[in-house]
Automatic annotation (TrEMBL):
<protein>
    <submittedName>
        <fullName>Uncharacterized protein (UPF0276 family)</fullName>
    </submittedName>
</protein>
<dbReference type="InterPro" id="IPR007801">
    <property type="entry name" value="MbnB/TglH/ChrH"/>
</dbReference>
<dbReference type="Pfam" id="PF05114">
    <property type="entry name" value="MbnB_TglH_ChrH"/>
</dbReference>
């Protein structure tokens, strides 16, 4: 019977530093892929002591059917531990490795040297590993170089559409596999929330790309803008969903008071029950779904209780996936490869006005001492009266953006 080898990394007497080399034992387990569901239960697995140690029991029980790797978090590593490379190659060889980018900053108005280097590194990495697909986050990164800040929303305009399409084509050319984008957790206004799905469809269509539907991100939007699930889910191109994310997050009290809370996509806690409910409701709506991935940051997996919670959450996710029995496909699943060869001849798309606005917004968010100060500054800035529609931004969401930007700035200091 055909089998898929799964590498288990057993940690004993693990030191604090991951590069230090714990006592690693390699065990080969086997998963009968004929018994697997058509949708693969997966984890976001990176070179992180917390997530790796929490995942060990799941590997040992042969439950992890695929892994998602944030490949660009290791671009600056001079050497990757051999045992981690073996883990990646095991899933890569089985066609069960997907890559998830973090730092490309898709919508930066200027094509930056860091983006060129990112693409070159991806091209090299795609020659080493067999990625079943590559994805990136939606938005642009705050900060002066757009590679050390917080991912935030952009205006939905012809300019950003043109730049986003150009960057996706370049990612596809470098990776030579399907490419996709993840829906955003943060928005400044309800209008942005309602337009997000349509804009994602327009972005990925030229490369026949796909969408990661992050259900915790969706939960953030549902809560923060008091929208019903049926209304919002219908605004997404669900036929383009190839991957679903589930994760946890955190609550913040809104600056305006009045008892309002803001849901944040911080990935540092267990998966809420409501997100599991969203998974059950969403599975039947996504005919081209292949992966369901559970995410959690290693910083939230430092205690035995949190690791047990991670294990329990994965089991719950997997049981929901296995209980879902999709109807037999009438046609082949969308492979999400370009219908025509992607051409990236010529200079990258850029817009200096957008670039200047992004720099200005980053500065405002990182320096404002209050929401009121940010609103006053925005009213006389280069963003006023533009496609950013800053005049319509929800005050509590603007305050949240300030907190996000300033937290990232402190982390990079």
């Amino acid at each position: 019977m055909p089998t898929i080898p799964v590498l288990v990394v057993a940690w004993a007497n693990r030191p604090a530093g991951i590069q230090g080399g714990p006592d690693i034992k390699h065990l080969k387990l086997f998963v009968d892929h004929e018994q697997m569901t058509p949708i693969l239960s997966s984890i976001a697995c990176n070179l992180d002591a917390g997530i790796l140690s929490a995942s060990l029991p799941l590997f040992a029980e042969e439950r992890v059917e695929a892994i998602e790797w944030s490949f660009d978090t290791l671009f600056n590593y001079k050497e990757i531990p051999s045992w981690f490379l073996e883990l990646l190659h095991t899933y890569s060889d089985a066609g069960r490795l997907v890559g998830h980018g973090v730092f490309f900053s898709l919508f930066s108005g200027r094509f930056l040297p860091e983006q060129k280097a990112w693409l070159e590194a991806l091209r090299k990495m795609a020659g080493t590993f067999r990625f079943d697909h590559i994805t990136e986050h939606f938005g642009f990164m705050t900060g002066k170089d757009f590679h050390s800040g917080a991912p935030l929303n952009i205006p939905y305009s012809d300019v950003t559409l043109r730049i986003g399409r150009d960057r996706l084509m370049r990612i596809q050319d470098a990776a030579q596999c399907p490419v996709g984008l993840e829906n955003l957790a943060f928005s400044y206004s309800a209008d942005e929330v309602k337009r997000h799905g349509e804009f994602l469809e327009m972005l990925v269509k030229p490369v026949n790309g796909f969408i990661i539907l992050d259900l915790h991100n969706l939960y953030c939007q549902l809560h923060n803008f008091s929208m019903p699930y049926e209304q919002l889910i219908g605004l997404y191109p669900l036929h383009r969903v190839r991957e679903i994310h589930i994760s946890g997050g955190s609550w913040e009290d809104a600056a305006s008071g009045q008892g309002r809370t803001i849901r944040r996509d911080t990935h540092d806690d267990a998966v809420p029950t409501v997100v599991f409910d969203l998974l059950r409701r969403t599975l039947p709506l996504c005919p081209n779904l292949k992966y369901v991935v559970m995410e959690q940051l290693g910083t939230g997996l430092q205690t035995e209780g949190s690791k047990q919670g991670f294990y329990n959450d994965f089991i719950t996710m997997q049981e929901i996936v296995q209980a879902y029995r999709p109807q037999p496909q009438q046609a082949a699943l969308n492979a999400f490869l370009p219908v025509q060869a992607v051409s990236i001849a010529g200079r990258p798309e850029e817009d200096e006005i957008l670039y200047a606005q992004q720099l200005e917004l980053s500065g405002i968010l990182e320096q404002a001492s209050s929401c009121r100060e940010a609103q006053d500054t925005l009213a006389t800035s280069g963003l006023a009266g533009t496609a950013w529609h800053t005049e319509r931004w929800d005050a509590d969401m603007l305050e949240t953006a300030i907190r996000i930007a300033q937290k990232w700035k402190r982390q990079q200091a």
